[in-house]
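A protein record in our archive is deliberately plain, so that people and models can read it alike. The tokens are whole numbers drawn from a learned vocabulary of local backbone shapes. For reference, a complete record is included directly beneath this paragraph.
>
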Amino acid sequence: MLTALRRAFSSNPSSKLEQEVARKISKTLFNSGAESLQTMPSLLSSLNSQTVQLVLSNHTLTAETCLDFFYFIKKNYQKPDLRAYITMISKLYRSRKPDKLHKSQKFDEMRNLVNCVAVDGDLSVPVTVIASLVEGACNESKCNRDKFMEKFFDILFRVYADNKMFGEALEVFEHMAKKGLHLDERSCLIYLLALRRGGQVDSCLRFFRRMVDLNVEVTVYSLTILLDGLCKRGEVEVGRKLMEEAAAKGVKANAVTYNAFIEGYFKRLDLGGVKEILKLMEKEGVASNVVTYTLLIHGFSNVGKVEEAQRVFDEMREKRIKADVYVYTSIISCNCRSGKVKRALSLFDEMTDKGLIPNAHTYGALIHGVCKAGQMEAAQMLVNEMQSKGIDLNPVIFNTLIDGYCESGMVVEALSLQLVMEKKGLESDVFAYNSIASGLCKLNRKDEAKGLLFAMVERGVSPNTMSFTTLIDIYCKEGNFVEAKRVFREMEEKGNVPNIITYNALIDGYSKRGNMKEAHKLKNELENRGLIPDVYTYTSLIHGECIDGKVDRALKLFNEMPHRGLVPNVVTYTALISGLSKVGKSLEAFKLYDEMKEEGITPDDTVYSLLVGSLHSANV
């Protein structure tokens, strides 16, 4: 034993003291293990980096023993230097069957040590310095230099990628390329994925092109990671060109690749692009998978193509592709958005009959549907059912229920639900406050609505465009235009952009107070901002002109609506019939009444009273 130890250290240019300390430590490790060193503090007091290096380089000690020693000194005495880390990694790489460490354990330990090197700022050095130390370790251990260099730098490349140290990873990659070391496609895939997850799509594209330049094997998986990033950023044309280039080199797109394009085109609302991709899939013989169908159903639903979404769902069933909970959730949500709650409930039953377990999103979609239909009892039943299955309410479902109660005039229930939500530790957000404030306004409880919005701000919740619009609408209805304009200015100062609803609140307020000059000024302003007047804008202006007795101006606005693609509603007709009736133009009023009925709009009792009144005015 002693002869072997002396032979192991005879060639090292170290002092006799360092060699002697290393010999004693190695002997102790060989016989008793690292823990026994705790009883030898005087020996360890002479420990330095060279001594550690001698112990780790000792060929008579197994990798497992050296690893125990490495962690022992790291924990109790001194931080190993970079050379010690690389020597230990080399030892693990060279270890064979006598060690108790399995191959997977060895790799994990090597990766863990490399990770320590990567994240420790004190060990940070240029890759050329690391390369020099790795070569030194190879010379000392007489291991296969090229194979160890490839393994070490491959692990280092992956570790840098995992730690989002993209610059350092690229430096390692370029060093490997320069030295002619093998560049593993799987490692490049990890780097591409890390860049993609970090939102660095441009870097992803540059690295992919570098892979191609260096003739690194490119698979459909690397290609798809890049294309997914480009498509999510809306750069589908760039993606299509890359896909064509890859196809020319024998890398064929798969269903996952095409799915990225389908999602990208839907994001751009480009249904023609979606159609092109589906045709391309068919031409290339790539079958749609369950994700493809989910994207199609969800995409068509979002653009209001409910029948198309249903057609896709039916096609999926015809092809016997098993729908999962995500597909069912998408088609249920689609039907709920279009008001087909009965069909959505039927699909929900079909899903559960097939043994699929609905999740919070499924219940959320259904609850949204029944709330919009004003069926709050059904909503509560669904809530009870989901809770009985261990699915708790999330903030989105709470907001949906609060909004549903407010739309149904059940503000008391909405306020109670808000308390339940906050007791669960969920803070009310701006959407919850806006819904309740809107509900209070509908019940003409405007002061309470204002107080609620003020309290919201005091609790640290920032108002959004809807919050400011609600306040502006309240002040306009109160005739307090000074405050309305002040809130409007504050809204803009805080970065909230007024929308058409904001302008409509102001225009309606000024119109009802007879200030048509200001109302028309606001209409011009909103158009200058790129907003388009809607039926409510015109109805308010028509009403205002009629109140002011300017029926000819009101008629001009009314006749302008069709040219803007706007269809008058019952309120528009009623306002204009009222104006005509008040100035005794009963013939025009009745003519408008007939037009109203021809358009399929049912007049209410107010219209009949106005027409009768116009006859009396005409007789007088």
About this structure: The longest helix spans residues 145-162.
